[in-house]
Input
Amino acid sequence: MRASDLVQETWQALDANRGRSLLTVLGIVIGISAVIAMTALIGGIKNSLMGSLGLDSSRAMYLYVSSVDGMTSDDLSQIEQNVSGYDFLTGAVGASADVTTGTTSKGASVTGVEPRYFSLMGSKIAQGRLFTDAEEKSGAQLAVIDQNGAKDLFGDDADNAVGRVVRIGGDDYSIVGVLKSTSLTSMGSVSIYLPRMTAQMRVTGGATTYSQVYGLASSGTDIDDLTQRTTSYLASYFKVPDEQVKNVIDVESMKSAIDSVSSLMTSFQVLMTAVAGISLLVGGIGIMNMMLTNVTERIREIGLRKALGAKRRDITTQFLLESVTLCLTGGAIGIALGLLGATGLAGIVSLLQPSLQVSPLIAPDSVLFAVGVCVAIGIIFGYYPARRAARLDPIESLHYQ
Output
């Protein structure tokens, strides 16, 4: 039998029972659309989260020793000299304070940093600029604020925050830049960044230690090895007993954070795919049920075909093709609905969390996987009905009423 004849007969057989065919593939449609929607949405959230948290630079490091009251500039110099693999280390000082502008007063998280802190953390400017190294060293009374903080302080006029003056602890600071907010900024308070020297002199009471220490690993450095070497050196430098190292010293890399986020997202994606797989299983059973019904209804047709010279493989191929066509039709509808669903869900997530703008990530691998699953379901669940049809006795089939 020619392939064109098979395709034509398959289409005619399915077209004769449109309503039943569409209802039969409903499970396939639901399963495939769920897989596509969840895969695209989770991929989009993952990409957005990586970018918004500044996690796209796996070279960022965080160093903390709980047994000491912060680290000094001398400590950072010693670490840089004795632990190879860092482009630089930088310290930050922090404090909580009230920030006032006009009649508005808000609780603020004030952090004193060097300009290179922003590039290290992947911060992006939405308005204005960052303060310079010269301004940081001179103790200039300048401030950089995040977008959420600007909205809290200035409301509808947040887009004009650059150039405005805020008051912190009796001193006035001019806002020179506004950072794009991330999903972790402005968690109940305004986030304001001052030049580190300014914060040390005017906010933290002249503190000479850093409450936070960050580093940028050199390009090509083995992050895991650098983490271990840094931990060992800090334990030796601050004389931390071996049994207390894990509890006292914390050296983390953004690479580990990226791996954790990726692992979490992958686990969630596998879970959702497994749930969608149940729908595909139900759809496959529906396909088998319909094909068995088709075989029963077309016994006389099968007998006539065999009497005219059709072989078993011709009958098997015809019914398998019908089964696969049903699944592919359901898969095509499911892929289209999945893409629409992913776009809609991404819009809802972005609406509920404005700082996390999500764009669905449509991976070609997911679409190819969905098509492969449809073909596999069609073959697996259509094989038994097809073989049953092929084994019918032509004489008994012609007498079937």
